[in-house]
Every structure is written in C-alpha cells, then in structure tokens.
Amino acid sequence: MQVTYAYPAMASPITGSTAKDYYAQVERDAKELLQRTEAAAPPTDDIDVEWLGVPGNAAEVLITASRGAALLVVGSRGLGGFRGLVMGSVSSQCVHHSHCPVLVVREEH
C-alpha cells in the first residue's frame, strides 16, 4: 500500500519560478506532515505501507499513482463556493481520469 502526499513544486504558479529556499521549505513541511500522519495512523503490522511525498500537481500525482493500483482513496475538502455539496477539484479529476476505481472520503460535518 502507498500513502502519497502531493505538494507544490513551484513557488509561484503564475511565473513558474522555483525559488530554492521556498521549495526546500515546502519539501521539509511535506516530509514533516507525512511523519506526523504516519505516527498518528493506526498500526499496520500486517501491511507493508510506503509513505511518499511527491512534488507536483495533486491530481496529476494521484492519477499517475493509480496506474496498477487496485483502488485510489482520496479525501474531498470541497473548498469551492458550494462546499459540502460537491467534490473538490482534485477528487473530481481523480474520479474522471484514474486508472482504477476511486473512493472519495468526505470530511464529516
């Protein structure tokens, strides 16, 4: 099983700059988030879990990760104007373009 966290690879989506200091901080933050998440996760003694931090667009990273997978599980923050009514853009992209079945887990209200 893989747990994949996609984090931004660019400092500015408008200019496309990849400022070294910014990127290094984003990468550190992503690694720390994965470590905290792994520490808080239930025991997985019988399951081999690979924890991955991958730079890039979240939808693209997850769709690529879905190749050869049996199931893709994504969250849905739904940060748009109709929060709670529709899926977020990343989960929607995954549902429509994934290479395997997708389970969207919504946050409880």
Strand content: 15-25%
Biggest sheet record? 2 strands, parallel
Rough outline: globular
Order of helices and strands: EHEHEHE
Euclidean distance between termini CA atoms = 28 Å
Estimate the mean pLDDT confidence.
Answer: 82
Walk me through what this model shows.
It is a single chain. The chain has 109 residues and is of the alpha/beta class. Helices cover 35% and strands 20% of the residues. Helix 2 packs parallel to helix 3 (89-97). The longest helix has 21 residues, at 20-40. It is globular, with a radius of gyration of 15 Å.
What labels describe this entry?
two-stranded parallel ribbon, two-stranded parallel sheet, single chain, 109 residues, 3 helices
Short description:
The chain has 109 residues and is α/β, with parallel strands linked by helices. It is 35% helix and 20% strand.
